[in-house]
Amino acid sequence: MKNRSLIDEGMDAIFDLDQIKKHIDKRLEELRQYIETYVDDIYDPTVLARFDELTKIKHLINKLNQ
């Protein structure tokens, strides 16, 4: 019975991590759209390129953690 409890906790942790990942992805997309709005008017276009590079790094880290 104790093993079942550990399995349940593990599954709960996996679910929580998946929810956090979805939240991060949603937030990154919102920030990208926000940046796109202001890049054209205020900032150098490299700002968006840097953001995209950070997103790529995040995805590489996710692959390493799998």
Q: Secondary-structure map with pairings?
A:
Elements: H1 2-39, H2 46-65
Description:
The chain is mostly helical and 66 residues long. It has two helices and no strands. Helix 1 (2-39) runs antiparallel to helix 2. It is elongated and about 55 Å long. The model has no long low-confidence stretch (mean pLDDT 77).
Main β sheet profile = none
Mean pLDDT: 77
Number of E-state strands:
0
- Helix share, percent: over 70%
The whole-angstrom Rg is 18 Å
Order of helices and strands, N to C?
HH
Shape from CA axes?
elongated
Strand content: under 5%
Cα distance, first to last residue?
A: 28 Å
Number of helical regions: 2
**What are the low-pLDDT stretches, counting only 5+ consecutive residues below 50?**
none
Q: Structural class, from secondary structure content?
A: mainly alpha
Key terms:
single chain, 66 residues, mainly alpha, 2 helices, elongated
Quick summary:
This protein has 66 residues and is an all-alpha fold. The protein contains two helices and no strands.
